[in-house]
Amino acid sequence: MAGGRSRRIIAALQVSLDGLIEGPDGEVDWIGSWEDSFDLLPEIDTLVLGGGAYPGYEQYWMGVLADPQGVQPLTGKAPSQGEVAYARFADTTPHVVLSRTLETVAWKTTRIVRDVADIAALKQQPGKAIHAVGGASLVSTLMNAGLVDQLRLTVHPVVLGKGKALFKDVEGRHGLELLETRRLPGGRVSLTYDRA
After folding, report:
1. Lesser CB count within 10 Å: N end or C end of the chain?
2. Domain region containing 120
3. Distance from the first to the final alpha carbon of the chain
4. pLDDT tens per residue, the chain (196 residues)?
5. Residue 10 Ramachandran class (φ > 0 left, ψ -120 to 50 alpha, else beta)
6. Is the pTM of this model over 0.90?
7. CA 29 to CA 144: how far, in whole Å?
């Protein structure tokens, strides 16, 4: 890239008020919609996921593509227009899955890499920003490697009490600079932080 600047990695996730990304039994029913609440799509051209999160992600979004009006098993309802728009975007956007154990993927836009160094190398290639979709282990791995440039969190007005913490495997302290706070419908709050 010109001037030696690398692409940014933006980790954007939906979290409960107590910092969890799912309940104790993997529940995500408190997330009303999986559409892009982060305003990311114009800024990104690559999606990165961890091996634990990817199979469910692939199943959900391929299901939306196959039947845009059908009831989806994960949510128990038909996808919103925004979710259909995201599914169509994802269907033409490269996905990179960081996993040492995942062997196969069904989505034609997806490839598996085995080492975080592969993600670091991806940052050096020309292109738009990279969206770190999740899950918690992936975000922790990327933060621990100093690869996350920005965090975008949609905070839901619910306390889950127990479940999977977003930052449970982050090592050490990571300073952040608050760039933006926005109120969203349904009592949600959008927070955007750059790495300090």
Report:
1. C
2. 2-51+94-195
3. 23
4. 444 578 999 999 999 999 999 999 988 889 888 887 788 999 999 999 999 999 999 999 999 999 999 998 878 889 999 999 999 999 999 999 999 999 999 999 999 999 999 999 999 999 999 999 989 999 999 999 999 999 999 999 999 999 999 999 999 999 999 999 999 999 999 999 999 8
5. beta
6. yes
7. 29
